[in-house]
Design a protein that fits this description.
Helix content is about 55%, strand content about 15%. The protein is of the alpha/beta class and about 575 residues long. The protein has a 6-stranded antiparallel β-sheet with strand order 2-1-4-5-6-7, with helices on one face. Strands 8-12-13-3-14-15 form a 6-stranded mixed β-sheet. Strands 9-10-11 form a 3-stranded antiparallel β-sheet. Helix 15 links the parallel strand 12 and strand 13.
């Protein structure tokens, strides 16, 4: 539902803020009051083509902001999610367009910068405008298939066709890939075989590069480490036994002293502690010597090992550079080359299998597409009949409607192979033709209304706008238009720009567009919600003109009292 529309400096409108309600909303006013400007501002907010002439004279920019409340699961949510724009649950979607006097425009969706293309995409699923010269909606034949599918309500057939088409597409891609591989030139096959041979000879393994790099670093430092280790061993041993001999000599000397003085007294106890400490030092010394020997054995590397490790590491990295992949992916590359060669060698058999799979998928798809075509033909006949019935009270009883369903397997796609065209003949004996080529402006609007009434309830959350759908008609026909607009509004918000008192009288809400002179000599357009006596006066004015009579007021009361 369109909740509000805010306009700044658009043509004659300097400032306008309007809040709208659900149901049937009528917009009335004198000719030239600015109804078309208001709809143009709405179109600006919906991504329609902008013209710098829309910027009010003397202003630097025009702005149009439309705020929508959406039912859960509306298509807008998916579109915005794909565009990376967040929409909070139960929060409105705000579309804002700013048009500068040089013709450049900026777009904001929920205060986030966006493109005009995205804005237009949202506008197409939020609002549908039916105007006498509007090239969208019914005038665009590309929409007719969607209208008919919505009416037919055959979602299960559409899903089956979509799934079947995906299967056909996948099978076709598989066949194309096999044929491409089979058509590889002899030089390409030679390259694959040569490259695979090199990789087989190299035989790379997972994690090998890291292990070789670590070993290379160890080996490069091993020679210097061995020298430092030898120095440490020499320091321990020294000439003639070094520290170990001196500790043993000291221990023997202490033993002789203890034999001479005995073990008693303070001196004996001190000598005992000294002997124990030297004995522990000798044990630690021996452990250190053994540990240094073990370390020396660890550095006992195979002669030429560093050269071999570097050669292997450089070979792996060279192959990786050649094929522009990390070393870790060389083995995967070898497997891919092998699979490609195997596919080439087995191409005949694989292609035959792929062709069989494609044929089978097409058989399923053809059946699904034919079922869709049949359902559309049947729905088209029902739609023709129902629209024809709606056209009778709209003074188009001589018009005939044709829903053409043209099947063409060459146009196969996810929604089948049908082209759907709505055509009309407005007079007996006249040929059928495109709506905008055969029907007049008023007839187009009424035909659009009739079709929408038949389709009512199938398009959730779509705001419908009818621009002077009642032009050129009055009396019973205008009454029929009003009643149908009222019926249509029960399924969603409907806005109608009207000059017909019969239409305005049945609206749930009524706004009047007025034009007045500013104090500075300019012109100002405003939109005012009418209630009570004001609304009766407006309907009476539409009935009688500038001079409103009591009879016109009584007739207005009668019209407003009628249940549509």
């Amino acid at each position: 539902m369109l909740q509000s529309l805010s306009i700044r400096n658009v043509v004659l409108i300097d400032t306008l803020d309007a809040a709208f309600e659900s149901g049937l909303c009528a917009l009335t006013g004198e000719t030239g009051a600015g109804k078309s400007i208001l709809l143009g501002a709405l179109g600006l907010a919906l991504g329609e083509r902008a013209d710098r002439a829309q910027v009010r004279t003397g202003a630097s920019e025009a702005r149009a902001t439309a705020e929508f409340a959406l039912p859960g699961g509306h298509a807008v949510e998916t579109i915005l999610a794909d565009a990376g724009i967040d929409v909070e649950p139960d929060e409105p979607v705000v579309l804002r367009r700013r048009l500068s006097e040089d013709g450049r425009s900026r777009v904001y969706i929920n205060d986030q910068a966006a493109s005009v293309g995205l804005l237009r995409q949202l506008g197409e699923v939020l609002v549908e405008i039916h105007g006498q010269h509007d090239g969208r909606g019914l005038m665009d034949q590309k929409t007719h298939l969607g209208y008919l599918d919505a009416y037919a309500d055959h979602a299960d057939l559409l899903t089956a066709c979509l799934d079947a088409w995906k299967a056909v597409s996948a099978a076709q891609q598989r066949l194309d890939d096999l044929i491409t591989s089979n058509n590889a030139t002899e030089s390409e096959q030679d390259y694959l075989r040569h490259a695979l041979g090199e990789l087989d000879t190299l035989d790379p393994h997972e994690g090998e590069e890291e292990a070789l790099a670590d070993e290379r670093q160890f080996l490069m430092g091993a020679e210097r480490a061995l020298g430092d280790l030898q120095s440490a061993q020499d320091a321990l041993r020294g000439d003639g036994g070094g520290l170990e001999n001196r500790l043993n000599n000291a221990l023997r000397g202490l033993d002789r002293v203890r034999e001479q003085i005995g073990e008693g007294g303070e001196a004996g106890k001190a000598l005992e502690r000294a002997s124990a400490a030297i004995d522990r030092a000798l044990i630690e010394f021996e452990e250190a010597s053994e540990a240094l020997a073990d370390a020396g054995h660890a550095f006992d590397v195979e002669p030429g090992r560093l050269e071999a490790v570097e050669e292997r590491l450089f070979a792996l990295r060279g192959a990786a550079r050649k094929h522009a992949v990390p070393v870790s992916e060389l083995n995967d590359l070898r497997n891919r080359f092998s699979d490609q060669l195997q596919a080439i060698d087995d191409a005949g058999e694989l292609i035959a299998e792929a062709e069989k799979a494609l044929k089978s998928a097409r058989t399923v798809y053809d059946a699904a597409a034919r079922a869709l075509t049949q359902s559309r033909l049947e729905a088209g006949q029902r739609l023709e009949q129902q629209v024809a019935e709606e056209l009778v009270p709209l003074k188009m009883d001589k018009a005939r409607v044709c829903v053409s369903v043209i099947d063409d397997p060459e146009r196969s796609g996810a929604r089948g192979w049908d082209k759907v065209v709505f055509e009309v003949s407005t007079n007996p004996g006249s040929p059928f033709g495109a709506l905008d080529k055969i029907a007049s402006g008023g007839e187009l609007s009424r035909f659009g209304l009739a079709l929408k009434v038949v389709l009512a309830g199938r398009e959730q959350g779509l705001v419908m706008v009818f621009d002077e759908v009642d032009q050129g008609v009055g009396g019973a026909v205008a009454d029929a238009v009003g009643r149908r607009l009222k019926r249509l509004s029960r399924h969603g918000q409907t806005l109608v720009v009207t000059h017909s008192p019969q239409v305005a009288a049945v609206a749930d809400h009524h706004w009047k567009i007025e034009k007045s002179d500013n104090a500075d000599g300019g012109v100002r357009t405003t939109l005012r919600l009418l209630t009570g006596d004001e609304r009766r006066e407006e309907v009476a004015r539409m009935l009688s003109g500038a001079d409103i009579t009591d009879a016109a007021r009584a007739q207005a009361d009668a019209l407003m009292a009628v249940e549509a």
